[in-house]
Amino acid sequence: MMLARRFFTITLMLLVAGCSGLGGEPRIVATIPPSTPEFPTDAPDVALGAAIFAERCTQCHGAGGQGDGVRIGSGEGQIPQAPRSFTDPATTAEQTPLDWYTTITNGRIENLMPPWRDALSDSERWAVALYTYTLHYESGAIERGAALAEAAGITATLSQSEVVQLTDAELVGQFDNGLDDNQRNDVAAYLRSLYLTNMDALGQAVSTPSTSATDVPAAVEPAQTLEVEAAVGTATGQISNETAGGNVPADLTVTLNVLDAEFNNAPRETVSQADGNYTFENVPVQADFSYIVTVRYAGRVFGSDLIQGDAATDGGLNLPVTIYELTDDAGSIRIAGMVSQITVVEDTLQVAQVVSFQNVSDRAYSTNVAVDEDRYGSVRLTVPSGAQVVSVTSDDSRYALASDGLAVIDTAPVLPNSEHLVQVVYRLPYTGQAQIEQVVEYAVSGPMRLLVTPSSLQVSSEQFEALDAQTLNGIVYQSYGVSVPLVVGDTVRYSLTGGTVSSTPAGVISANQLIPSALIGLGVVAVLVAGFLYWRGRQTPVPAQAEPADNQLLIDGLIREIAELDAAYSSGQLSEATYRKRRERLKSRLSELMDSD
Description:
It is a single chain. By secondary structure, the chain is of the alpha+beta class. The protein folds into three domains: 3-8 and 328-529, Immunoglobulin-like, CATH 2.60.40; 46-224, Cytochrome c-like domain (Cytochrome Bc1 Complex, Chain D, domain 2), CATH 1.10.760; 235-326 and 534-595, Carboxypeptidase-like, regulatory domain (Immunoglobulin-like), CATH 2.60.40.1120. Strands 11, 12, 17, 20, 22, 23, 25 and 26 form an eight-stranded mixed sheet that branches. Strands 2, 3, 5, 6 and 7 form a five-stranded antiparallel sheet that branches. Strand 2 and strand 3 (268-271) form a beta hairpin.
């Protein structure tokens, strides 16, 4: 993930931890390794899979797996898109049993299929996966395949974990045997059967579940008590324009993003009504899903809060969206706070800087200066002469670098009456002394701080005065604050002398050394619930599968949701058990999303 985005997110996440009273918990933005699938250790039981399928799946997939269940159709409350038939070989041709298992585990939200990870055990999910995966085998295929395999000297040599990662074509393709397509399909059925039990139950799903203990394996009984059917509800909201004299045009494109627990996105679109209201019908509503609505207006994208499925009432989700007219008047922008963390790394000063901007107008601040073909600049942060910005890259979806390399340009519109964070990391050459000069392009209405380490690094300035030292994650920072007001065009000046070689590797700012406590000390904790998703100045709608360039929208929404969860807990609205469970889930999602970039 790009350094700028990681720095921004880690800073906010640690800030959240500090505000929540859980500051002593383990660092919450540690890299989470990719999840490893639970491969079957024993042969999946096809009879068990058939029983679970009959109990759980026939309403949508039909008793024979042909996608003709009673819930499929065009009537009220039905699902209009029929699942593909499991009896068609083309359905599984390009997928492996592992793909099948993953879909069952995580669900397929775009088709209103719920995830079964919590309702079924690993072995049960593998049983259902292999039962449905093999439904396309023709009658007699296994027996014919056995005879062909014996004649060709084909034997099973793979492990369970290996065979579930192969398509049928790949399973047979390891043998150079000159078989035709029909024969290869038969051999595939035979080879697959060697890794399964109770293959005689293949194709024996029934339309109603059996209640006989001899007919239904005991292993399926615990799952039968769980409610796993995905609720279907509506998502509604009203688009309002909060700029004086502004209106809401009819027929605005409204995008509902439905995000599952793995943050797979299944967006759907509608248009707003004349009064600004919109409605989405047949929306899957689950507690571990997240929902956010975006609206494109005036060439910018505005959005609702990101909410959890458990916020729904009576199956409904309320997601209002506020839009604004635009302004490019820089006089509406204030710097509400700025913190610079300075570390000596060998012969380099490494500076991590976070600036909180505030828009005091009733219009979204965004200039008409095009950064590229579909983005426009908003606020700028000028870096000192000689600095090398290392936190903005050519594929950065939010920030751009000025042509001279000495200013970072944000493309996120600054919303009215909201703090808006911009971060930058840059380096300066250092030989034991340096004079730093940085121009401020907006009026400064809040405090400015320097945090420097090691202790032998000294700051001299007519503007900054020494404050109490701050200890962040065991590292002591000397702290300095501005004691004089600054106006547009003023220059921040200070000199650095001394300092020793840091133990931090060159080019890296440790997440444990970032500056959230300094922000708390500045009194700008309000940034936690600001700066949401409106950074996107793009003209294109959200794609069907969230791309890395769009992840910041989701990251910002999760950060806001964590902050609001903390506030709800602090005010006594949530029990500690509920609070910790939901917070851990949100933290995990955020880390996974960051690491996916």
